[in-house]
Structure formats: structure tokens, C-alpha cells
Amino acid sequence: MPPKATTHSMTMRPGRFSAGAFFVPGMLLAVLVAFPTLAGASFAVPAVPAVPAVPAPAASVAAPPAQSDIFPLQLPGLPQLAPGGAAPGIRTDFRAEFPTQYWNGVRAAEPTFVLQRGEYEGSSYKLLAEMGDLKLQQTRNTLQEVRGRGGHFSLLTGNSGNRAVVETFATSRGGGGDDTLVGATGELSLQDDSARFKTIFLSGRKSLDREGRWPTAGARRGDVVGFVAQLEPFKGVVAAEAEYDYSTYDANTSDLTSPLRDSAYRLKLSGGVGPSRYIALYERTGPRYRLMNDGPTRDRQGGSFGVETAIASHVFDVKLSRYNDNLDNDPLAPRLYRYEGVFDYRFKGVRELPLALQYRKSFIDSTKEPLGSLPKDVAEDAVSGQVNYLAGHWDLGVRGGMSQRTDRLRQQRELSTTSVGFLPKFSAGSFTVAPDLSLKRVMDFSAAQRTDQYALNLGVTGKLLEKRLDYEIKGGYKRECTGVPGTGKEIVGAKLKAVYPLARFFNWTRQPSLGIKGEYSEVNNLTEDRRENNFSLLISLDGGSFL
């Protein structure tokens, strides 16, 4: 179940591209030209690539295989367009979901997810319309991910391994329609996805009166148009992608400042042979390239190359990259170059003893320094690793790392870090105990200061009362000291969560429950001689639903 959006920072707004008014008619005309005969056509739905996951922990330091950067529109919890072989007709679907965590405050009366879907399939085309909560994704340079409530319409048609898709959508996350995103996309796929071409148009608007300004202050406006091409002549062996995007951004439409306009592009080559995979990337993002939502890093250009291969029980991954900033050669700022190489190794020969190691080397230097600015030449080395011992209900893990940063101009160390952690865990049925102990030392040689950090945590989760009561208890202590008497910091924290269903006492459609949630934290700042305490306890009774 996707979480309900609580911020307004990622939503784009209606824009002023005159070409937008002719986008959808132009795509429909292209579809008719590309597919003059549609009788008896059959087509396959484009494969939906996995959404990028959260970075893996230290136990799996190698990067996953490269994936396409073209993201189709995805609807959480619902299937995509049905296969072309389905019988023609009209299908409808309605879905609503309510919160499941009853202890987390007072439950809202409205559902957290609502979607009404209608689909019509003819002999050679499909029409799809949705209204409700949508998850919108396009490309990394245009729209990475936005969730909003609105509508979506798409038309899909194809013939002999070729396919054309036209989509339009509009969402709003503001109470009065002051935070909106509208867009349209057109995609053409040839020869069973051997060649794909996509055009993206997005426009967003956000009123500034919700940011503490007068309503007459105007609004933030932003537009972006993107063109994407993907060629894959040999499936799984070589694939090439190219993307060009142009954006217009106005931080305040009521002032006389001209909008920011800039472009971004990226080229990628990926594929693999046998157990080996490779990826090469070159990208450039202008200093004034801005989006209404989170976009790529601005004022940056460079490339990277990576190779991953597996030999028996050994997995090797090597990545090399080089980037620089100050693309406009600003005379008041230097140009910084960053070079980085990463080597990852994983051993899977012993199932009970997985091992992961990583070595990282990076350089940062500067050129074209302005008058009065000192040059920069810094090198950093880092080594980390983790090993686990799996024995029945036990998972005993140890991780550690060392890093050092050196000023090569002065030939002296600037900073070094050493850390070690012990991560034992015991699981038996629905009961899990996970303590951990970590030690870290930071040496700042430029300030002649040493900082030591000690942390001890304990977490217990499980079920009680015939597996009806879910509970979670966590607690921890952290100590930070600098070696100087009377300085440092101490932190103590604890959390408690428990939920007990009351279905055995009430015969309702939705199960009522009794929940409790408590938190406690104490921060003792010895350096500033200040102590802070926070405590909260929430008891909630969710009555479920009579209907």
C-alpha cells in the first residue's frame, strides 16, 4: 500500500509551452501514419522495470544489474494493461485501502488509497482510464517519482511486434488545486522493443501563498520536455539509450525575473555476456536545469564505467567515474574534478559464512581558481567489509571500516575514521532479539581533535497471546566524547509499539484493535551543559467499521 503523500515539494505545475497544445493531436497522427491497418493486430504490454530500491547494506556492496532509465506509468497495487489476447469488452475495477497501523495516531476517516479503473479492449486497441491515487514515473531527468490524486487516460495499439502508446494525466495535491501536475507522453516501440522512442511533456504549478507569502506573490512554475531513444539490437548483450531534456523554471511568476532555462542529456551503453555485465554512462546537466520535483544534480558533467562478473563463488564489481562542475566557467569559482574508483568483492562459497569487502579511492582537485582562492588536491582511501556467521537461529555479524583523507598539496592527513560493529541476532519463530554494539573514532588532524563514539542498541520483536499481540521494543545508548573533560554528548532512547486485535469481541467487517505507542529520548550535552528530555505515550482504540 503506497503511503499517503504529505509534502508538496515534488509536484510540478502547469506551464506555458505552446507546443503542449499540439502534443496529443500530433501523437495521434503519428500513430495513424505508423499503423495504417490495425485489423487483427496483436501486441504485448511493455515490460515494467523494477523501481530502484533502497541502497543495499554493507553485506551486499555490489551494485545490481543495470536497468532501463525509461519508467512507464505505474499504478500501485493494480495490474497493468491486460495482454492483447484477452476477449474484447469493458472491464471496471474499484479499490480502496485504509490504514493498518492503528497505534499511529487517530486514524483518518478517509481511505489512504482510492482508484477507480475502467478499461475497454477492442480488436486492435485498448483504452484505459483511471481516477484516484496515481504513482507517476518517467525518467531520471524529468520525473523520478510523484504520487498524487488525479486522472489518467491511455491509448495502446499495435501491429506485428510494433506498438504505440499515448498517455495523458493530471494530478493535484493541493486543497484548492494550487499544487498540480499535468503531462502527456507518447511512445513508439518497434520490432518487439528492439527500438523504443518516447516523448515526454510535463508541466507543474505550485502557489506561493502556502509558503507564508501573500496570495498575490504568484506561483512557482516549471515545464520540461524530454526525448528518449533506446536501441537493443541484441537482447541482453548490448543496449543503447539516449535522452535529451529541456526545462523552464520560474521561482515566482509575480516578479520581473526571467525564468531559468537549461538542458540536460545522457548517453548510456549497457549489456552483458555470460556471467559478466557492463555499463557505460555519460551525462551533462546544466547549471540552470531545475524541476519542480527532485531532479538530477545540477552543474555537473562526466561519465562512469562499471563491470561486474562472477567466477564460481566469487563476485567482482569494478566502477570508475570522473565528474566536474562549473560548466559555465564562472570566474568567481574554481572548477572541481572528482575521480573515483570502487572495487567490490563478495564470496558465496560457504553458505554459512557470506563475506563482502569494498575498497574505494577518490581524488578531488581544482583548476581555474579565482584570485585569492587556494588550489585543492585531496585524496581519500576507504576500506570496509562485513562477514556473517549463520548457525541455526543465530546470525552473528561483524563489520568494520577505515578511511583516510589526505591533503596532497601539504602532504599531510586531514581526517581519518575507524569503525567496528558487532551485529548478533537470534530468531526463533515469531520472536527476534537483535542487539548491536558499534565503536567509532574520528581523528581531525587539522583541528588536532579526536572524537570517540560508542553505541549500544537492543531490539526485541515478536507475538504474544497466541500470536495475536504484535509488539516491538527498542532501546539504545550513545556516547560521544572528545577527550576533553566536560565535553561530549550522551543520548538515551527507547520505543515501544504494541497492537492487540479485538475481533474476538466484535463481529464487524473491519477488525477493531487496541494499540499503544511510547517513545522516550534524553540528550545530555556536556559541552553546553544542557539536558533535554522528551516523552510521549499514545493509546488508541480503533473501532473498525460496522459496514
Percent of residues in helices comes to: under 10%
Q: Low-confidence spans: pLDDT under 50, at least 5 residues?
A: 1-86, 101-108
In whole angstroms, the N-to-C terminal distance is 22 Å
Element order: H for helix, E for strand: HEEEEEEEEEEEEEEEEEEEEEEEE
What characteristic shape results from the CA principal axes?
globular
Question: Which structural class is indicated by helix and strand composition?
Answer: mainly beta
How many DSSP E strands?
24
C-alpha Rg (nearest Å): 28 Å
Q: Count up the helices.
A: 1
Q: State mean pLDDT (0 to 100 scale).
A: 80
How many strands, which pairing sense, and closed or not: the largest β-sheet? 24 strands, antiparallel
Portion of residues in beta strands equals over 45%
Structure in words:
The chain is an all-beta fold. The chain has a domain of 91 residues. The protein is 2% helix and 57% strand. The chain is built from 1 helix and 24 strands. The protein has a 24-stranded antiparallel beta sheet, covered by helices on one side. The N terminus is likely disordered.
Q: Brief overview, please?
A:
Helices cover 2% and strands 57% of the residues. The chain is mostly beta strands and 547 residues long.
Write the layout of secondary structure elements.
Layout (H helix, E strand, L loop, with lengths): L22 H12 L54 E9 L15 E9 L3 E12 L9 E14 L2 E11 L6 E12 L4 E13 L11 E16 L3 E13 L9 E14 L2 E10 L14 E12 L2 E11 L10 E13 L7 E13 L9 E15 L2 E14 L4 E17 L2 E14 L4 E16 L4 E13 L7 E13 L11 E13 L4 E13 L5
Antiparallel strand pairs: 1-2, 2-3, 3-4, 4-5, 5-6, 6-7, 7-8, 8-9, 9-10, 10-11, 11-12, 12-13, 13-14, 14-15, 15-16, 16-17, 17-18, 18-19, 19-20, 20-21, 21-22, 22-23, 23-24
